[in-house]
Amino acid sequence: MTWDDLDARLDRVPGTVSAYLGRLDAPPTWTRTPDATHYAASTMKVAVLLALHRAAEAGAIALDDPIPVVDEFDSAQPGAPRFSCARHYDNDDAVWERLGGQATPRWLADRMITRSSNLATNLLVDRVGLPAVARAWQLAGARHSVTGRGIEDAAAREAGITNLVTAADLAALLGGLAVGVHRAGPLASPAACAAMVDVLLDQRHREDLAAGLPDGTRIAHKNGWVRGVRHGVGVVLPDDAPAYVIAVCTTTDLAASPDDDLDDACRLVAEISATAWAARHHLTG
């Protein structure tokens, strides 16, 4: 399948499908509406991860010093009441089982990424602050992505404060972390980048981008989903070709249910991932 063929296939998909594909630290091989904004869902958690590690490197946070596990947070909407998460809407009981106790930021970061815990995310956003997350996006070179609020901050959402991403910005963020493992860059030290990539490699939700790859293929990735949205971004590490970054964002009725790991949007993202894999030897850059 050529990229024109893939574009023609995606033209028939209801809604908006955005994509970015290319070698690390190089111009993309193929893009499709890469700067279109989509509701971020859980992909914004990668920017929170970066903000956390940057705070740790600055000495503002100790990754292994426990913090209280609570479920009440300040709204991003000034004057609004504090808000809480809904356990049934979360993806990880382990964090909830520590409610009223303590957990280390390092452990919470792992649950935020590998299990996509919403409660862990809000605890870390509360700890680092939204300006630090905005700075993480800025340092990655993101042009349109915004993390304006925590998860389930209804008052902020109703006031129009939201979380947005683009395929190009997500690719810049993940690609920057992968490149940062091997040389000092603007995001964080090589050791911190390596620690973040290791967490992303341990991702347990593998029903979209990873599903389009052969079993055993290494991919450092994060996905996100709510009704009408399914995204995936990752750095694929083939044994027989250079690494590449791929980001796919879909806002479409094919994402029928946030609880359905095998809906048509998942299959679509996996199909795009499989097409990229088939072309891995021929990506430019």
What would you note in describing this structure?
With about 280 residues, the protein is an alpha+beta fold. Helices cover about 35% and strands about 15% of the residues. The chain contains ten helices and ten strands. The protein has helices at about 5-10, 45-55, 95, 105-115, 120-130, 130-140, 155-160, 165-180, 190-200, 265-280, and strands at about 15-25, 30, 40, 65-70, 100-105, 145, 165, 220-225, 230-235, 245-250. The strands form three sheets. A five-stranded antiparallel sheet has the order 2-1-10-9-8, sandwiched between helices. A three-stranded antiparallel sheet has the order 3-7-6. A hairpin with a 2-residue loop joins strand 8 and strand 9. The protein is globular, with a radius of gyration of 18 Å. The two termini are about 20 Å apart.
